Amino acid sequence: MLMRNEWAPLRLFDPLDGVTIAEPPDIGRGNWAGAANVWFDETGDFWLVYRLRKPHPHRGYLLRIARSTDGVNFTTVWEMTKEQLGTESMERCALIRLDKNLWRLFVSFVDPADRRWRIDAMDAPSPAQFDPQKRKVTLTAADIGVEGVKDPVVYRLAGLWLMFVSFSPTPPNATEELKQKMHATGDVFATGFSRSATGLAVSEDAEKWEWQGEVFGNRPGEWDGYAGRITSIVFHLPIFVAFYDGSRTVEENYEEKTGIAFSFDLRHWERVSRSQPALTSPYGTRSLRYMSVVPVGSEWFCYYEFCRPDGSHELRLSRVEVN
Q1: Which among 285, 278, 274, 307 is positioned nearest to 31, based on CA atoms?
Q2: Pick from 120, 263, 236, 40: which is nearest to 244 by CA?
Q3: Is the pLDDT of residue 3 over 60?
Q4: Residue 11, SS3?
Q5: CATH of the domain at 175
Q6: SS3 content of the chain, % helix, strand, coil (to 5)
Q7: pLDDT band at 261, cuts 50/70/90?
Q8: Count: domains in the chain
Q9: What residues contact residue 1 under an 8 Å CB cut-off, 6+ apart?
Q10: What is the C-alpha separation between 230 and 243, in angstroms, rounded?
Q11: Which of 12, 104, 148, 266 is deepest in the core (most CB within 10 A)?
Q12: Strand order of the sheet with strand 227-236?
């Protein structure tokens, strides 16, 4: 009975009642505003980091950080282009505050050296002052023995930093020829040669990370048969609630839907969305993905990427009362 009462509000909020936070750069498929992460600061400010994308060959071309006092109306304070990283594309990033005068931005982008997704970090005294030339390595595919790592979600728990990431495992008995094919397009996640899973890295200082391996995966044959990407986690006594992106096949790689799972230890997860997604758009591909949930008082501010009737994606917000 407890579980039913807890889950009901999350499964029933209607994305059509949401508010548009950022528009895509153009109409049509492949034009996206989203992949957002939100840091709610102790000062009461919302700090939003998101990216803009256009169809190939542009891909993820612009990263923005924006500030808000109400979580709805945001003002851009910083931007970075993909050219500043020398990369083909940028994806979901994460912003955290380490102390009063130190912020850290984790950026996921295609490594120009081997065309595999990687994550770097840069520090600044404020979110408006990040310098792409001063970034440091956080996680690379080569260092942790996978084919790609991106989309960090970062939390602090009892003094330990946790980073949940989307990663592409190396297929068993993969030949060098297969590895070359996997990275020929600069996006292994869209090739179908591997799969999309969630891994965990831990750190005491949010700088040196220890790779823990896979903690959440895909379910072959189900609606989340190809992808299982955790995008947000909220502690809701007595459990951790995760929102995750799922896709049935690699053809839905860019058009995932949102599922819900729960855990008591952040390493073993039970899916609530077993037969179908919990949240979808009513339009086009029905994609609703990259959920970022911020608890504020008795509400959860839910930011997500939402498929519009023309096939583009906008960044949208829905607010949910949680008892």
Answers
A1: 307
A2: 263
A3: no
A4: helix
A5: 2.115.10.20
A6: 10, 50, 40
A7: very high
A8: 1
A9: none
A10: 6
A11: 148
A12: 227-236, 239-247, 257-263, 270-271
C-alpha–C-alpha distance, residues 2 and 151, integer Å: 32
**Phi/psi zone of residue 68: left (φ > 0), alpha (ψ -120 to 50 degrees), beta?**
beta
Over residues 271-313, the pLDDT tens digits come to: 999 999 999 999 999 999 999 999 999 999 999 999 999 999 9
Range of the domain at 242: 2-321
User: Tokens 């068993």 appear where?
Assistant: 172
CB-CB neighbours of 71 under 10 Å: 21
Question: How distant, in Å, are the alpha carbons of 107, 123, 212, 245 from that of 165?
Answer: 12, 20, 11, 12
Residue 240 has pLDDT above 90, yes or no: yes
3-state secondary structure of 5: helix
Q: Which amino acid is at 112?
A: P
Task: Specify the amino acid at residue 51.
Answer: R
pTM for the whole thing?
Answer: 0.95
